[in-house]
Design a protein that fits this description.
This protein has eight helices and three strands, in the order αααβαββαααα. The chain is mainly alpha-helical. Strand 2 and strand 3 form a beta hairpin.
């Protein structure tokens, strides 16, 4: 099998981009989706990066593109005009389907690169989890007290996430006392082999999830605290990266 050429992967990205082209007609999205699926299936069957690890990463990346494109095409009836930026600026913006062609391309690229729709609303509801409440003192979101509270809360959360991330590294199955104990229990027959494997896999998933979530949240909260402290962005520009787990009671809400 040959290595994946750059031009081929560029075509994949272009097809994925045009799934997000802001037009009220569904045909362009369906046509782009069909092109994307054909390209990805051809990629899966004809190309290899000559490394199982790299092939795995490429397969996951392509799979995310395919699932996201299908979701956008068939599970978002409010697309594109139902998607708006959060904040007061959205009131003066044209709807995406009415933008000039060049601006449509920019809107398309922005949406395609923001799979979790952070900072967007959809049909009047926030997309991507909870909103940021920064005006509880009654002075509005740009007051110094609101900024101070926001920065302190994000710095505190960053410290917590950094601690959780380091703990997740220390407690990976191959190095943690719990993971090693489960391995020894299976080795010496103190636990049935099937039960030990199940517990080891559960522990591995839990540690991996904690590490990934804490790392991503640390990066986002650090950038949020710094940019708001410097006055580059407002607190409402930084909604939480992950919403409440209690809201994930359907596939659609979990994905968005």
């Amino acid at each position: 099998m040959e290595r994946l050429p750059f031009t081929f992967y560029a075509l994949v990205q272009i097809a994925f981009l045009f799934v997000h082209y802001p037009t009220t007609g569904r045909f362009p999205r369906i046509a782009s989706l069909i092109c994307l699926i054909v390209l990805l299936l051809y990629c899966y069957t004809e190309y290899s990066l000559q490394s199982p690890g790299e092939d795995y990463v490429l397969g996951c990346t392509n799979g995310i593109l395919m699932v996201t494109a299908v979701h956008m095409t068939f599970s978002c009836p409010e697309f594109p005009d139902g998607f708006q930026r959060t904040g007061p600026a959205t009131k003066a913006e044209s709807t995406p389907s009415e933008l000039p062609f060049v601006q449509k391309l920019g809107w398309m690229a922005e949406l395609a690169g923001n799979m979790r729709r952070i900072g967007l609303t959809r049909d009047g509801g926030a997309v991507g989890g909870a909103t940021v409440d920064v005006s509880a003192d009654g002075h509005g979101p740009t007051s110094s007290s609101a900024r101070r509270r926001f920065v302190i809360s994000r710095v505190t959360l960053s410290i917590v996430c950094l601690a959780v991330f380091h703990l997740s590294i220390l407690h990976r199955p191959q190095s943690s006392p719990i993971g090693l104990a489960l391995h020894e229990d299976a080795r010496y027959g103190r636990l049935p082999h099937s039960n030990s494997l199940l517990l080891q896999r559960f522990w591995q998933v839990a540690v991996w999830t904690a590490g990934v979530v804490s790392e991503m949240t640390f990066l986002q909260t650090t950038a949020a605290a710094l940019s708001v402290w410097l006055g580059i962005f407002e607190p409402e520009d930084w909604p939480p990266m992950f919403g409440s787990p209690s809201h994930a009671y359907s596939v659609r809400r979990f994905w968005s």
